[in-house]
């Protein structure tokens, strides 16, 4: 376990994580910050609750899509294994 500091939307978070997952956490924080910046420029809203809600929805949609795509890929692999 190790401690890392992440900055998300100008707020610093000190987290204790498995050291082998540090890169994942840093990439996730960068993705969040990039999406927050993008949405802030696109919608120019001062209401951060609305902004963060839109970012959360975007991330959730991407997660569901990735899970669906993975399920589809697993089905294709299973079918290919069955017919070969």
What descriptive keywords fit this protein?
two-stranded antiparallel sheet; 2 helices; 17% strand; alpha+beta
Secondary structure class reads alpha+beta
Distance between the termini: 45 Å
Number of domains: 1
Low-confidence stretches: none
Overall 3D form: flat
Lateral strand order in the biggest sheet: 1-2
- The DSSP helix count reads 2
Written account of the structure:
This protein has 84 residues and is of the alpha+beta class. It has one domain. 69% of the residues lie in helices and 17% in strands. The chain has two helices and two strands, in the order E-E-H-H. Strands 1-2 form a two-stranded antiparallel sheet. Helix 1 crosses helix 2.
What is the secondary structure topology, with strand pairs?
Elements: E1 2-8, E2 11-17, H1 22-43, H2 48-83
Antiparallel strand pairs: 1-2
Helix pairs in contact: 1-2
Write a concise synopsis of the structure shown:
With 84 residues, the protein is of the alpha+beta class. Helix content is 69%, strand content 17%.
């Amino acid at each position: 376990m190790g401690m890392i500091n992440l900055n998300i939307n100008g707020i610093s978070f000190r987290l204790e994580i498995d050291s082998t997952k540090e890169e994942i956490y840093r990439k996730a924080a960068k993705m969040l910050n990039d999406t927050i910046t993008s949405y802030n420029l696109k919608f120019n809203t001062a209401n951060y609750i609305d902004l963060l809600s839109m970012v959360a929805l975007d991330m959730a949609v991407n997660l569901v899509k990735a899970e669906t795509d993975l399920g589809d890929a697993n089905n294709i692999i299973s079918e290919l294994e069955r017919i070969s």
